[in-house]
Amino acid sequence: MKLKIAVCDDDASQKDYLVEIVSAWAKRNRHLAELKPYEDAKAFLFDYAEEKDFDILLLDIEMPGMSGIELAKEVRSGNATVQIVFITGYYEYFSDGFDVSALHYLIKPADEHKLCAVLDKAVDNLAYRQRSVLLATADGEIKVSLADILYVESENVYIIVHTVHGNYRTRMTLTRLSEQLDETFFKVHRSFIVGLKYIKKVTRTDVTMTNGETVPISRGLYDEVHAALIKYL
Question: Looking at the whole model, is its pTM more than 0.70?
């Protein structure tokens, strides 16, 4: 896989150490990796403003000027795909990672085997996010990542695909689209398919999604939906 990876740490020795590990990991796994080292958040953001195509960020947390947490929040506000890994000497920051959907925390000095395992997981996540469906809409054909689909709604001969980036209407049956989805989706009603990762709450009558919208559940399907959600988690 072709990857663009940033290593951001104000400690030069730590930065070089991480670059060495990542370079060896990429070569061993035959990834075509472009590694970009930065000494602080400002230097990274200067490049990021021009090219927002980074796949993995390895971030120190305590850096001068802007912390790794603040940097991650700025990047995450406009990028739901990038894999963020914090490498720090402080345990107390762990809870902050939830706000930016951090993939993992590693304590300095990062263990090589643990870091490589986290990088493998990041690649798996990126590969999944690259899976997509092609929708023919009024504005032309649009490629939608499976990972961005909240739920799908049937509307006569059309379906509406609700995503984290907006909604898309296309002439297609729900059954036909379901054939292109995977096990992270569940048909909760004859007119609705939901993304399990975006379910916030399940009752016997409906599902509440993370964006606050509700989707009805067919009578008798609650146990199956609940079981599918537990299996997904």
Answer: no
Q: Which residues contact 231 (CB under 8 A, 6 or more apart)?
A: none
Interior/surface letters 33-46, b for 16+ CB within 10 angstroms, e for the rest: bebbbbbbbebbee
Give the span between the Cα atoms of 69 and 75, in whole angstroms.
10
- Is residue 193 within 8 Å of residue 174, measured between CB atoms? yes
pLDDT digits (tens, 9 = 90+) for 65-121: 999 999 999 998 878 789 999 998 776 655 555 668 888 999 999 999 999 999 999
Instruction: Please state, as a whole number, how many other Cβ atoms lie within 10 Å of the Cβ of residue 207.
Output: 25
- Listed as own residue / partner, the contacts of 218-225 with beta carbons closer than 8 Å and 24 or more positions apart are 218/188, 218/189, 218/190, 221/188, 221/189, 224/186, 225/186, 225/188
Amino acid at 214: T
